Amino acid sequence: MKREKILTIVIIPVILLDATTLITGSELIPLRFPFATIFPVLGALLGYILSCRKLLLSIVYIVFITLFTVLSAYVFIPKLILQKSFRNDVSFNGNSIKNAVLLNPDKHPCYISSLLEKKVTLLEFYFVGCPPCEMKKNALDSLRKKVDSNKFQIIYICDGAVTSWDEFVKHGKKWEDQQQKYFYADSATITRLYQMERRSYPLEVILNEQLEAVSVHYGYNDIFRDLYLERTINIINREIQ
Length: 241
Hints:
single chain, alpha/beta, Glutaredoxin, 2 domains, 5-stranded mixed beta sheet, elongated
């Protein structure tokens, strides 16, 4: 009887937490519910099985939990996070890009449309001091080497509402020898380019030659680096063929 009570004490709070998630945090589905729910439930069941003192069943169950945990860390969770980071609800105004003005590191204004060069273009929005932006920069360097540079380019756009001009210039100096294209935009310019309830960085928009957004992706974590590169390269190659 005590075993059942312990199991109930563990599982009921989990159910209540998930109920709260379903009501107030639907964006956490399926990572919080039902996926993360499985771990405390598995732990409670493990305690119950061990208390029954069934050696063979305990060994089999421990092996199962170990395999599930490893697969979750390296396969299931990265795929879920990556899937949620590709957005379909972000409105990107492709037409307004023609008149959007950016500043290059020499503070000379230029239209984004003059930079596109009839190539598939990845616009990478970032701000200085953003850890995920720095992590993603390494992934984008790898991506740039794997795609035909005659048909594809990356343009970095720094959010001037978050980063000062001096910070932008200082940060950009380490990119000068890498032939990177990086520019500065004020808050109004970025707002004209895309509309979101909140700005999430890094934000990536891939444009085809007709200035149509074919992919929108926000956030980054090295946990899904390889999956991100594979999916993004496939999207780019599809557009340049």
